[in-house]
Write a structure and sequence with these properties.
The chain has about 450 residues and is mainly α. It is about 75% helix and about 0% strand. Keywords: Membrane, Transmembrane, Transmembrane helix.
């Protein structure tokens, strides 16, 4: 049993190390998976073709439309200048005195409206740099401000957010994107309040020391001609359409849940519970409407570069989902190995309460993989049905399982090896040494808040 456990931990350690060093997860995930199989004395080829590839393919089948449409929507919003227009208007409306809050709100508005996290960082950074420089706020605080607005509460806590971290649990628990709204809103307010307290504290500390914006920075953005941007009110229409239609097709009499005969779905398509696909279907329609609306904002401007933009979006979506699917395949193979039972007793059954146990499991795996969606997918693939079964016997709503799984994924995922963190620092031209400390503090706050909420809820159910 000792060798079996070492095989899993060694393969997991190699996956983390090689991913951190920049090796493609698509290639290294199957290699370290097969290493674990060999060391455990398992069957090599069946583990790869029947377990690894089958589960990776199932994940792609389920979530690729969301990855693709989300990437296209974000790219179109970027190409038309709509994302930049929204960021510019919000940042300028708040002014220098509330520069940090302005950046946080600009990121939050774009993220909650369905724009991908990476596009948000690109769109907001030029305006964040300009207003931080005017307000003499250190540039090193820009990454943490963007992270608070885009990588925390609007990514996984706010009910209805169309980000993938809020959609993944719906396929396992039969819920929708608006699950457990009271818990989600409570977490949102706590994260926003405590996060802003910390960033303002750092701003005042820097002001007292006379630090200022700083000089000799890399990747300073070129000034954007505000006259070339579409109007704010026109730019925000696609975001509102995504939010509105996602709600309409999820939770009203027009919900896609009521579009097809249940017996036909089960007999023809093998969909036993339509609840597992409602969120995917509603978001697919909402994002499609958002894309069409975004294109109409400035079709003349994007006409010549549309093909190139769509290619870039599709390439990014493919890379993102194949990376995550590779991690899901890894997790499923590992779950079949002899040593997994001992590890699962510690990680997945750390508490008798499924909410607290799930929160621990998702957070640990998100931290290990450096990916919120990756850690969430692995945990729910391995133990989602177990948590649902235990919750059912205890009378716990699946909506609570959904919300805490989603919120926990956005905790320790932002460790230094996280792809979004690395990209954000690259965009802003800063290093881990310069800016990661504040991102890490926000990560600790987020993780602590989710765990405290999980413990509190566990005491009353």
């Amino acid at each position: 049993m000792f060798i079996d456990i070492v095989a899993i931990l060694l393969s997991l350690g190699l996956l983390i190390f090689l991913a951190y060093r920049g090796y493609p997860v698509i290639i290294i995930a199957p290699l370290v998976t097969l290493l674990a199989v060999v060391l455990s004395g398992g069957a090599l080829l069946p583990s790869y073709t029947e377990t690894y590839m089958t589960n990776a393919a199932n994940y792609i089948k389920t979530f690729f439309p969301i990855f693709l449409l989300g990437a296209v929507f974000g790219k179109i919003m970027d190409m038309t200048g709509a994302a930049a227009s929204i960021a510019h208007c919000i940042v300028r409306s708040f002014g220098q005195k509330r520069a940090i809050l302005a950046v946080v709100f600009a990121c939050a508005a774009l993220t909650y409206g369905g724009v991908s996290l990476f596009v948000v960082a690109f769109a907001v950074y030029p305006f964040a740099a300009a207003i931080f420089k005017e307000a003499a706020i250190p540039k090193r605080l820009i990454p943490a401000s963007i992270a608070l607005g885009a990588f925390t509460f609007t990514m996984d806590s706010m009910p209805g957010t169309p980000q993938i971290q809020n959609i993944i649990p719906t396929s396992y628990f039969g819920t929708d994107a608006y699950a457990a709204p009271l818990v989600g809103l409570t977490c949102t307010l706590l994260i926003l309040s405590i996060g802003m307290w910390w960033l303002e504290r750092q701003r005042k500390k820097a002001l007292a020391q006379g630090e200022g914006y700083g000089s000799h920075h890399k990747n300073e953005p070129e000034p954007i001609d505000e006259k070339t941007l579409p109007s704010f009110w026109l730019s925000i229409v696609p975001l509102l359409l995504v939010i509105i239609f996602n709600f309409i097709f999820s939770r009203t009499p027009l919900s896609v849940r009521n579009w097809y005969d249940p017996s036909m779905l089960e007999n023809t398509y093998g969909i036993g519970d339509v609840g597992t696909v409602v969120s995917n279907w509603s978001l697919i329609i909402a994002l499609t409407i958002g894309i069409l609306a975004a294109m109409l904002i400035n079709m003349k401007k994007i006409r010549l570069t549309l093909a190139q933009g769509l290619t870039t979006a599709a390439t990014g979506a493919l890379l993102a989902i194949f990376n995550t699917a590779s991690e899901v395949g890894f997790g499923n193979v590992v779950s079949k190995l002899p040593g997994f039972s001992a590890i699962s007793e510690w990680v997945f059954r750390a508490s008798d309460n499924p909410i607290l146990s799930e929160t621990i499991a998702v957070n640990v795996l998100a931290g290990i993989t450096g990916s919120a969606s990756g850690g969430l997918s692995i945990a729910l693939e391995l133990m989602g049905s177990y948590y649902l079964q235990v919750a059912d016997t205890m009378g716990i709503s699946p909506e609570l399982l959904h919300r805490f799984a989603s919120m926990a994924s956005g905790g320790m995922d932002t460790l230094p090896h996280n792809g979004a963190v690395i990209t954000l620092l690259a965009i802003t031209g800063l290093t881990h040494r310069q800016s990661y400390k504040d991102i890490f503090v926000l990560t600790i706050f987020k993780t602590a808040i989710v765990f405290l909420l999980a413990i509190t809820v566990s005491l009353f159910i």
